[in-house]
């Protein structure tokens, strides 16, 4: 896993945007896995600004979002489909985008079809991920099988509480979601995890330097051949090898840089 430490969230977002640009230069019809939550918002706005300046083109790209709340129609303001329209798709035209349908009547069938659609698109080239304060990726809460596929998950009380700020009361936060599994995520060719702030420091250290365990689903990324973790200084605070990560980054050969 490559760990990149940047001074602040703004610089993390710029570094991530550079990786998106490089991916599109190499393959204009790339397939991106996308995330929601507060972490990717600035990155999406940067991509929007770059697209409007003619510096980035997603018009041939396909996207698959990680997850969606069960029971919220795509038009609901707190659905992840609405989130994606607001922060990215309204500003950057993409060829095809996919968010799981939270209103599907047959959830197992929806999950199987989502996996099939990813396969038919040729698999995910670059998967963007936020990191939960409990070490989750997508909505794979601690205890999730590291081989799991897209499926229904019940949120932990902590995640419901974390996300309550987006709803008018905690009671309104759906208890269930559909999420890509850890196994689905591990099949992406490149995984890119972003994390900001002191609140994430423990999860960052557990993910990158702790044991591989279902109790920290993000730790499964230690088994991934191409995983980039970009964090700000507060989120890096508990990493034991942070000076080495800085050294590696400073000494990166030019061809490896985004
Ligand atoms: P956040 O959530 O980006 O809102 O911190 C990350 C996550 O829970 O995956």
Question: Which descriptors would you attach to this protein?
Answer:
alpha/beta, Rossmann fold, seven-stranded parallel beta sheet, three-stranded antiparallel beta sheet, 9 helices, globular, binds 2-phosphoglycolic acid
Describe the 3D structure.
The chain has 258 residues and is α/β, with parallel strands linked by helices. It has a seven-stranded parallel sheet with strand order 1-10-9-6-2-3-5, with helices on both faces. It has a three-stranded antiparallel sheet with strand order 4-8-7. The radius of gyration is 17 Å and the shape is globular. It has one domain: Rossmann fold, CATH 3.40.50.1360. The two termini are 16 Å apart. The chain is 34% helix and 17% strand. The longest helix is centred in the first third of the chain and has 18 residues, at 9-26. The site of 2-phosphoglycolic acid has 6 residues, from loops.
User: pLDDT below 50 for ≥5 consecutive residues: which ranges?
Assistant: none
Question: Helical percent range?
Answer: 25-40%
Q: Give the strand order, joined by hyphens, for the main sheet.
A: 1-10-9-6-2-3-5
- Report the CATH topology name: Rossmann fold
CATH architecture: 3-Layer(aba) Sandwich
Task: Output the radius of gyration.
Answer: 17 Å
| The top level CATH class name | Alpha Beta
Number of helices: 9
The count of β-strands is 10
Bound molecules: 2-phosphoglycolic acid
Given the helix and strand composition, which structural class is it?
Answer: alpha/beta
Distance between the termini: 16 Å
Order of helices and strands: EHEHEEHEHEEHEHEHEHH
Number of domains: 1
Beta-strand content bin: 15-25%
